[in-house]
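User: Here's a protein and a ligand (xanthosine-5'-monophosphate). What would the complex look like?
Assistant: Let me lay out the input and then the predicted complex.
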Amino acid sequence: MSITREKILVVDFGSKSAQLYARRIREQQVFCQMVGHEVTPRQIQDMAPVGLVFTDNPLGNRLDPAVLALGLPTLEGMTLDEDGNRKLSAFLKETCGCQCDWTMEKFAEYAIEEVRQQVGEGRVVCGLSGGVDSSVVAALIYKAIGNRLSCIFVDTGLMRKGEPESVTETFSKQFQTDLHAINAESLFLSRLAGVTDPQQKRKIIGATFIDCFAEEAKKLGDAPFLAQGTIYPDIIESGIPGCNAKVIKHHHNVGGLPDDLKFDLVEPLKDLFKDEVRQLGLTLGLPAEIVWRQPFPGPGLGVRCLGELTKAKLDLLREADAIVREELAKSEFAKTASQTFAVLLPVQSVGVRNGERTYENAIAIRSVQTTDFMTANWTRFPYDVLETMADRILSEVPGVNRVVYDISKKPSATIEWE
Ligand code: XMP
């Protein structure tokens, strides 16, 4: 069974908006994938589309004429305003004969069936990070093969407030997976003791994660499959068929596993954009708090607690960060801010409380809006939202006497502080 029964290919001629073309087609409930303009007729035949949509062509790139000779319906010069959508809809329905019935429920059914076919009677290991992608993968695979799925969750001690609890609750109670939750906080903190350099912190966190994951995976014996939360933008960035563009990056969710752990990958989200993954999560019944979780870097609070990491500092940051996220959730930016979090700065400053001098920590609030995470602008929160965040942190988090809002764009700043 294939999910690609009715598929359109977007041929990218080097347009800045190529992903937008793909989005527009999927919004019309037709499945589509992207290919580069160097695509061969053979590659197109293998993908079996019902039509081709060409992006704008700012560089005057050429297409192999043999592609046109395949005789597939083509749409050129699709504009991305209202009129463009009408033209697109007519092309999909009338010219290509599409049913326009690609729904998330259908996708879930097909994807579950595909997982069953791929793994047969085998077992699957899934690393749960607490993030949306790995949670949706785990929920989907659980629906496909039940307790032949084993989930490994490593609590690094660098997670946000409530995150380990919500992951373990969801995947041991709601989805009764074979969950292996490892509390590795003291191991992480002992290996990180005294380390202040951000890159060094990242390396130690990454290596310790692999050690914990591999040790637990070995205990599970012969599980031949590893589930990964690879999503469509990861595939696009790693190179789409027929596109010679330089590979931007290769994505490995659990890269660096030792050689004696050999797995075949199960990647059921590889055709979905991020918001489609969230929709699928809702369709599968995951709680909103997991589905709407913001992206969170692998090293977690390790790169938001500047300088040396200690449990006391991380606990303080967790409290401040929880307040920032609670107030964000009440604000008009709840779903439009891309990432919003607190950072514990490595400075103390003078303040005053109840007539007494204090010399305490400073928290920075960081919130950005971005589509690609390569550039970002700071979120224009109304002053009263910022005021509530600051007032609550100052009154509810002991040891903090100053809050600042970060108004740096990326570039020249990055989104994270370390
Ligand atoms: P920066 O700070 O580079 O962040 O502007 C861009 C995006 O990447 C995330 N990020 C990371 N994700 N491991 C990750 O998995 C990392 O080491 C890491 N550093 C940054 C960041 O949260 C933002 O979404």
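Summary: The first helix runs from residue 18 to 27.
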